[in-house]
Amino acid sequence: RSHKRVVDCRSDIDRMNAPLLAIYESLVPKEEEKSNQKQLLTSLEKLVNKEWPTAQLYLYGSCANSFGVSKSDIDVCLALEDPDINKSEVLLKLADILQADNLENVQALTRARVPIVKLMDPVTGISCDICINNVLAVVNTKLLHDYAQIDDRLRQLAFIVKHWAKLRGVNVTYQGTLSSYAYVLMCIHFLQQRKPAILPCLQGMEATYVVTVDDIECAYFDQVQHLRDFGARNKERIAELVWAFFDYWAYRHDYANSVISVRTGSLISKRAKDWTRRIGNDRHLICIEDPFEISHDLGRVVDKYSIKTLREEFERAANIMHYDPDPCVTLFEPY
Ligand code: ATP
Ligand code: MG
Fold first, then answer.
1. What percent of the chain has pLDDT over 90?
2. The whole model's pTM is what?
3. Could you tell me the residue ranges of all domains in the chain?
């Protein structure tokens, strides 16, 4: 009997694999979209350098970390050398400059947790958020980008998980669910933990890239072109991984005691981080350690109501992958 079950599983996997890959392919941005983004960045650079000649613009977030689906907004960081600038003043000045250049929907959000200027380019239709001196986000963008180069299955898994989270309404941080960044870290951690491992722990290897940002040393092995066959001994395909990912977060993760940590490539205990009780607004109901800002729990937005929503969604997804005859439709049904 157990042999028959294994055979059934295999044929389920075979049946689900191609449709999942097709969903992934349909979400990947086309070359034209990428070149439009670059063009917009170049014209923004020209505008910015008229006012701040030594300033640099960096793309970060999903347009630069390889996890951006088609038609995403782009995230831009304006890096100014002067450390004593007043961010609000700079943002208001920047908003004036952009407005004068016919960019649309220009809006300075100076009181947000990460203050930004929003804009829309009427030529390409691309929306863009510009923040100031958020260099750590540029560095964690590079880390995610480097992980994505090691094994194609990371990008496939993360696209599918992000797509699911958006359609199921659990990718809304102001409603207490998780950011895209948190979901990608969950995927990396998951692939580090597979047996055999599909991803290495880059921060646990000899550092070939070292920068210090806001007093935080960011160091890891970034020569990832040498790791292209790291996961070759693991033959799991995307359907098995999506299945196991949801199964892990539905039924296996120890929410009471464990923190997932891409930095160490393993689970660490909540006790070791002193994340066992609520402090201020940080409830630590699901714990995802930021790889560089290690006192930062990306699960801190989750509250006692949204943790229930999240866990129910993980269970729903796991059950669909397990029992549904046509999981690729049901899994992504809009909430
Ligand atoms: P999407 O495709 O949904 O826009 P994204 O990867 O751009 O996904 P965002 O949530 O828009 O994700 O975040 C943009 C970037 O900002 C992230 O890639 C990350 O570098 C940084 N970031 C976002 N949230 C945090 C956070 N809580 N702590 C640290 N950095 C963060
Ligand atoms: Mg983004």
1. 89
2. 0.95
3. 31-133, 137-331
Cβ atoms of 134 and 77 within 8 Å: the answer is yes
What CATH topology corresponds to 137-331?
Poly(a)-polymerase, middle domain (1.10.1410)
How far, in Å, from the CA of 140 to the mean position of ligand 2?
Answer: 13
> What is the CA(182)–ligand 1 centre distance, in A?
8
- Residue keyed to tokens 């049946």: 15
Nearest CA to ligand 1 atom 23: 181
Nearest CA to ligand 1 atom 26: 298
- How far is residue 45's CA from residue 67's CA, in Å, rounded to a whole number? 24
Find the residues whose C-beta lies inside 6 A of ligand 1: 60-62, 65, 67-68, 72-73, 75, 137, 140-141, 179-181, 290, 296, 298
Inform me whether the pLDDT recorded for 7 exceeds 80. no
Judge residue 209's burial from the number of C-beta atoms within 10 Å of its C-beta, 0-12 exposed, 13-18 middle, 19 or more buried. middle
pLDDT in tens, 246-271: 999 999 999 999 999 999 999 999 99
ipTM of model over 0.85: yes
Query: Considering the domain 31-133 in this protein, what is its CATH number?
Result: 3.30.460.10
